[in-house]
Amino acid sequence: MRTIDWRDDHVVVIDQTRLPDDLILLDLHTVADLVDAIRRLAVRGAPALGVAGALGVALAAVVTPHDVPAQAALVRAARPTAVNLAWGVDRALARLGDGLDAVVAEALAVLEADVTVNRALGERGADWLLGRVAGPLNVHTHCNAGALACVEWGTALGVVRALHERGAIGHVYADETRPLLQGARLTVWELGRLGIPHTLVVDSAGASVIANGLVHAVVVGADRIAANGDVVNKIGTYPLALAAARAGIPFVVAAPESTVDMATPSGAAVSIEVRDGAELTEFAGTRVAPAGTAALNYAFDVTPADLVTAIVTEARVVEPSAGGHP
Known about the structure:
The protein is α/β, with parallel strands linked by helices. The chain is 37% helix and 18% strand. The protein folds into 2 domains: 4-114, translation initiation factor eif-2b, domain 1 (Four Helix Bundle (Hemerythrin (Met), subunit A), Up-down Bundle), CATH 1.20.120.420; 121-322, Translation initiation factor eif-2b, domain 2 (Rossmann fold). The protein contains 10 helices and 16 strands.
């Protein structure tokens, strides 16, 4: 089952807010429907957002052919931090001059390419790790960078899957990923379905897992990679990079080339999404903090390039901490 797909001139997505208890598909027939799904994280993950951006323009071409640029702008603005969303929009919108059919065809090309791109990325990442650490490897990961963050194949979990297929995975430690628990709800669900041994830990235990020698490498995804090699990813990634550097183990970022943003010089130039504080002060609709408590809910953080051992894409491996640049 694909995380996101195009069927009968509309977009279909897995509603990730309903996992792990319910596997529900959403049929999105308008750009407004898609934008809502993106904003409330029914569809999420950098590569999946890239596909969503392209399919959003295709949807506009089908439903509102007279207003495609304006509708595309709404999709592009749905989430500001992940560069893939804008990349997907721009890919499809660039074909508007060739006609509406060309826009849809380009969006479908983006959809299909995501599968092969991330499979290649996973194999390359597995090769790189096995060239430096004798398997079986224990890996630490954060947030969800699996199939649910892509179309069919993950980025960070794509590397884990490739290792698993080679019999080279020992154990995976997954952070719960507060406050929306993408690790607990999504990553652990995926690892279970793949039959990969895993353990869930609270975010604040991640550094201790690394310090106690339980893992050989940290492998995460990315929402944007700046031109200098800084990596923007889910909040809580930066502390793992610090812990990995202290422990002397590789900190690996697995992301497609579409995540590399050469127009952004460094992580300092990225607009970091700040989400509703109620995600911190409430849980499942129940208040867990005193009424009136202020909350600062950063959705992402920036890991400096000098803490990144390797950036693995479908095309190459860059080693920023050794002086490499995207």
